[in-house]
């Protein structure tokens, strides 16, 4: 018998982490590498947040807190939901975890039984299916094509629902596509869910503040209040405030679910870092100027990358509504051969050849459940992005 758990065999390592690691290895060998695979802001955490963390250390706030978040932070999260989303929650309906990923994982572990299904729109963030599998559930994929703006249609949602469906995940703006759901889009989806009262909604709003042009963010419980009692709304400080390494995520939902998630967390990690919680408190209660400033930078970068990729022969890159990703199609490149002699049979071979022949690291679309595409994170400088687009264009021009 294998020493390792059979549960572990159900999941695979994160492709984004693997590609980022390979890019680092090649760079360490002295190769000129541009890594566009990691999904985190390239800015420093705002100064007032860093100062709040230092002050917390100096004040001796270095002990355990309540298992799923200190009361002050939960109160601030309630105010955030009221102020920004028009949603009323009490602290008893709030949970704080070590990053948004733990909130999602806790929810699945606390609710899924063997045979339970979770609907995941594809393309999806790479961790969704594996978290469902670890919790003993079954991922059910509903395709959201480029022709539909990478958004799940009501028809596709309806077709995916079965008596075994427990959750549907809604991520807007999306990783990996940057697609955002308007109020009208969400209304059509929530209308479907109102006909299926056994299905719960897991709203991943982590990119809420990174939206561009005239797009207005809304969340499912805001669009359809009748769904609030079967919705877990997850968010965090990582993307909005450049705090990925601080590891603070939070969720709001029915008390029974929040208690179950706290019970699970009490026997796993226990409380998130006390220092990080004080930093998150400063982020939510302090000046919000950083959000608008970073949004403007990301919007400029989005425009730069979309224009640069659409200038590449055989690549079609839609304009995303938010986040800091693009998810272009390479359908017209399949079957061609690179200047280095690699047959582009799929998006993985495209990404591999691109990395080894040009030094540009991207994530292939199969990792996100929809091919033939690839994902670029444009959370890096204009100069780097311009160089990367030029290399990709040269690679595409060399295909035969």
UniProtKB/TrEMBL annotation:
Q: Name one GO biological process term.
A: amino acid metabolic process
List residues traversing the bilayer.
none
Quote the subunit structure annotation. Answer: Homodimer.
**What family is reported?**
Belongs to the class-I pyridoxal-phosphate-dependent aminotransferase family.
List UniProt keywords, sorted A-Z. Aminotransferase, Pyridoxal phosphate, Transferase
Q: Does the keyword Transferase apply?
A: yes
Q: What is its EC number?
A: 2.6.1.-
CDD domains noted in UniProt: AAT_like
Q: Which cofactor does it need?
A: pyridoxal 5'-phosphate
Q: Which Pfam families match?
A: Aminotran_1_2
GO function terms (MF aspect): L-aspartate:2-oxoglutarate aminotransferase activity; pyridoxal phosphate binding
| Annotated Aminotransferase class I/classII large domain residues | 31-392
Protein name, per record: Aminotransferase
| Superkingdom of the organism of origin | Bacteria
State the reactions this protein catalyses: L-aspartate + 2-oxoglutarate = oxaloacetate + L-glutamate
């Amino acid at each position: 018998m294998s020493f390792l758990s059979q549960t572990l065999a159900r999941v695979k390592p994160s492709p984004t982490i693997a590609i980022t690691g390979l890019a680092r290895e090649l760079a360490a060998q002295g190769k000129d590498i541009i890594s566009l695979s990691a999904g985190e802001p390239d800015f420093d955490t705002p100064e007032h947040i860093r100062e709040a963390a230092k002050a917390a250390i100096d004040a001796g706030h270095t002990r355990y807190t309540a298992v799923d978040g200190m009361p002050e932070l939960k109160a601030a999260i309630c105010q955030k939901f009221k102020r920004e989303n028009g949603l009323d929650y009490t602290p008893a309906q709030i949970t704080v975890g070590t990053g948004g990923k733990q909130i999602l994982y806790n929810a699945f572990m606390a609710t899924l039984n063997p045979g339970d299904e979770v609907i995941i729109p594809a393309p999806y963030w790479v961790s969704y299916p594996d978290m469902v599998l670890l919790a003993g559930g079954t991922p059910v994929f509903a395709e959201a094509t480029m022709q539909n703006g990478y958004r799940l249609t009501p028809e596709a949602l309806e077709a995916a629902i079965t008596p075994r469906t427990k959750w549907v995940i809604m991520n807007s703006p999306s990783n990996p596509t940057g697609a955002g759901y308007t109020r009208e889009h969400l209304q059509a989806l929530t209308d479907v869910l109102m006909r299926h009262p056994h299905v719960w909604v897991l709203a991943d709003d982590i990119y809420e503040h990174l939206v561009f042009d005239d797009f207005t963010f809304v969340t499912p419980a805001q669009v359809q209040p009748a769904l609030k009692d079967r919705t877990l709304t997850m968010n965090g400080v990582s993307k909005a405030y450049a705090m990925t390494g601080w590891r603070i995520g939070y969720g709001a939902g029915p008390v029974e679910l929040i208690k179950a998630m706290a019970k699970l967390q009490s026997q796993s990690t226990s409380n998130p870092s006390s220092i990080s919680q004080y930093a998150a408190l400063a982020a939510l209660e302090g000046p919000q100027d950083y959000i608008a400033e970073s949004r403007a930078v990301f919007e400029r970068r989005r425009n730069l990358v979309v224009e640069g990729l659409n200038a590449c022969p055989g690549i079609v890159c839609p304009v995303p509504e938010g986040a800091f990703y693009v998810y272009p199609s390479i359908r017209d490149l399949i079957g061609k051969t690179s200047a280095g002699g690699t047959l582009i049979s799929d998006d993985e071979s495209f990404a591999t050849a691109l990395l080894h022949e040009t030094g540009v690291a991207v994530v292939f679309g199969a990792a996100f459940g929809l091919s033939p595409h690839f994902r670029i994170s444009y959370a890096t400088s204009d100069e780097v992005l311009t160089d990367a687009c030029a290399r990709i264009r040269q690679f595409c021009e060399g295909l035969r």
